[in-house]
Structure formats: C-alpha cells, structure tokens
Amino acid sequence: MRLLQKLKRMKISYLVILFIIFGSTNAFGQGVLSKVKTKKFKTTTSLKIEGETGYLIVPENRDKPDSRRIKIKYVRLKSLSQNPATPVVYLEGGSGASTWQVDSPKDLSDWLEVLEVSDLIFFDQRGTNDESLNYYWKGDYPKNFLVSEEQAFAHYKTMSQQASIAFKDRKVDPSGYHVVAHADDVHDLTKALKLDKYSLYGFSFGSHIGMTLMKRHPAQIERAVFIGADAPNQSFNFPSHLDTHLDKVSNLVAQDSLLSLSIPDFKELVADVMKQLKEEPAVVTVKNPLTRKDIDLPIGPFGLSLLLRLDIDDSNDIPAIPRLIYSIKNKNYDMLTWFVQKRMVFGLVFPGKGINQGLASGVSNERWSIIQQEANESIFSNVVNFPFSAAKDHWATAPLALNTLLPLKTDIPTLFVSGTLDARTPVEQVEETIKGFSNAIHIKVKYAGHEQAMWNAKTFNKTIPAFLTGKQVEEEEVSNGIIKFLALEGPTNDHPSIKQ
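RESULT FIELD:
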C-alpha cells in the first residue's frame, strides 16, 4: 500500500516537473531556457565583459506537438554603461552563427562601441552547426554541373530528392526551419530574458528575420538597424540587379588608367568570355573536398556566372575579378581553378535548413514572372536565385503563419546601411523595401560589398551606437575607399588566387 502511495506521489511529482518544463512555456511561447550560467569574456586589451550564456530549447517544428526539441545558443553581454539604452539583439546572416564572437577577444573588441551604450545579445539561428540538416552527395562530382544551368538543375533535383529521404531517415524535419520560426525563437528568448523592449541589429538574412519580427511582434521592438537588408518578400532576387552591378564594376575598370588600356569595356569582355566558354568549356583540375581526389571539371557560362554572383560583390575579391576574366579570355585557368575550388561545394551539399527557409518565404507569381523575363535578358541568366530556383518546383513547403509576400509597413525607427557594390542585397532592393518604413534612414557605404557594408568604421562605431540611443543621425553617403584592382599580369601578394 505504501509503495502504491509512493508511486502515486512520484507520478504527481513527475507531472509537476513536466508542467514546469513544458507547460510553463506558455508564459513566453514554446521555448524554455537551459544551462544558463554567468561568464566573463575578455577583449584584446583584457577588458572583462560580464555575460550570461545559455540555450533556448524549442520544438524543431512549432506546428507539431511531438516534434523533437532542439537547442539554440545565446550570449547576453552586460553593457559598459551605467545607464544603458534598450538591449540590442544581434541577428546574423548566412550560416546564422554569432555567439562564437564572444570567445574571440579580437571579434568581441569590435563590438565595444555598441556595448558602451547597451546590453548586446548574440543569438544563433535554429539549426546552426547541426550536421544532420546537411545532405552530402555520395556519388562522383557531377561532371557537367558547372557547364550549364540545365545540368546544374538536373543534379540539384536528384540531390534534393535523395536529401529528403535522408532527412526522413534521420528523423529531422527541415520544414521547421523558416523565417517565422526564426522570428518566434527570438521572441521567445526576449520573453524568457524578461525584456519589455529591445532593439534589433540584423545583417543580411538576419534583417529578413528582423522584419518578420516587426510584423509578428512589433510591440516589443524599440528600433532596428538592418545592414545588407533582405526583406521577407525578397527571397527571390531580380537578375537585373546583377547586371546593374556588372555595369558598376565595368565603370570602375574604365576609370583605372592602366586596366582600361587592355580592357576598354569590361562588360563586353565578360560577354565575350561567356560566349567563349559556351563554345569551349574551360577544364580545371580541383580536389573533391569530400573524397580529397583530384578531378577534372569543365566550366561553362553557368559556372562562371555562379562564381561571379558569389564573389563579384565582395570587396576582397572585386579587385581580382578583372584579372580573372582577362586570364580566362587568354585561356589561362590558374585563377579560375582557385575560384572553382572555393565554390564547387555547391554541387556536393544540400543544406536542408538553408533551402527550406529560402523556399518557405516564397515568391509571388508577379515577382517570379518579372524574374523569368529578366533572366531571359540577363548575361547571367537566373543565377542570382540558384540554388533556390533549382529546388523551387520539387521541394514541398508548408504554408507559413504569416504572408511573407506582402511588403512590410511600419513606423518603428529603422536605420538601413547598404554597400554601393553589394549585388546580393543592392541599394535598389533596399530602396524598394524602405517605401513601407515611415521612420527610416538609409546610409550608403561607397565601394563596400555585401560583407563590408557592416564594418565601415564611421557607421559601425559612431552612427549605429548613436542611433541605438535615440540620437538623431543624418542620412549620408560614407566611403570605404576606392577599389584598387590587381594588375592583369605579373606576381602579386594582394589576392590568394594568384600563385607566386
């Protein structure tokens, strides 16, 4: 009898524990904090920053009660100010990882100006560093993947079908990774941290998440900073923006007194090289990063278009691009080999998280119609939307709890920062977005690419901290310094693609 009573008490206690763990999530959504601890972090000058680390535990698929639980790391750093402004939540783009910065004294030091005015919260995206969400191609590298768009699409279709089977076998659910889930993760974290108000600081896809938060949970958001802004209704990009970017680079080459002697029209040179590669693909020898075996790969117009799309808006690579195109024209493929080695992973990995979150936001019929029309006229075809365009018609996505296709309208004070040499989230795209913002400022960083728009010293160290404290800032154009192109021939240490 006593044993039965003991078991009943244990059962009640167990139910209480379950309620604490799961039932109490109603207080701030579907997430709970785990492994919270205090920690001090050091800058390069050994300045100690007090912080708190932990994880937010959330359902992988918020629409399925029995979904597996995943953990998302966060770090909250205490402001150096005695009277700090509203806490700032930083949302990374790309891979989605940002908390690693606190363990790097050099990277942490970069954020001191923000910490001088407010608490700073780094929050990784769901799925960050989860290898179970990546499918790796098991066969030989698809020989003609970088020859034509048709070949690339065919391979990606096969890879996505095999990836879908693999994810199911692993019992992971890529459909849970989309912008609404990312935004609700942030909302749950701010509630768990008991933040009545906070400001957003989003870079690239982080701004995509930030604008979704502005739609779903605007009451908590005091102000926002978006760099390289990508709105929820802009998951698919206009090919014309990449053509316009090529015009900008071509104009810069024309202004270079030495390069212009050999390249009077850079845009025309790119077109000639595309035609040359269509008639006779270049062949480069690279190493398969999965098998470590050397393979010979033919490179056609699609391959070059993909390389340019990925690197022609990075201020670190732009200086090398004219020399790359010039060398291909002369059938010297040394530089091309370096760029292919850097980017060939596109044919080997299917990122379930990234693909699903891009496709889930979707594209309107009207926008897609314009994209297709522009792709027919673009020198790069529709490479700006690869690989999403390749998976668009055979990767199923569930409807979102938000219509991401509608432009955002808000009066939340927002600061946009764009690089004038950003082809991924170009100035023109931001100007399309900003129409719905009644209280916004747009700062353009001259000669900055997508990544470099983030780190302009004046904007990052002065303007943004001032804006976060509510001070008036001016709409202006600042500069990162003019692009200095590599010489077309001869040795140089100015870019890793050049062999000495």
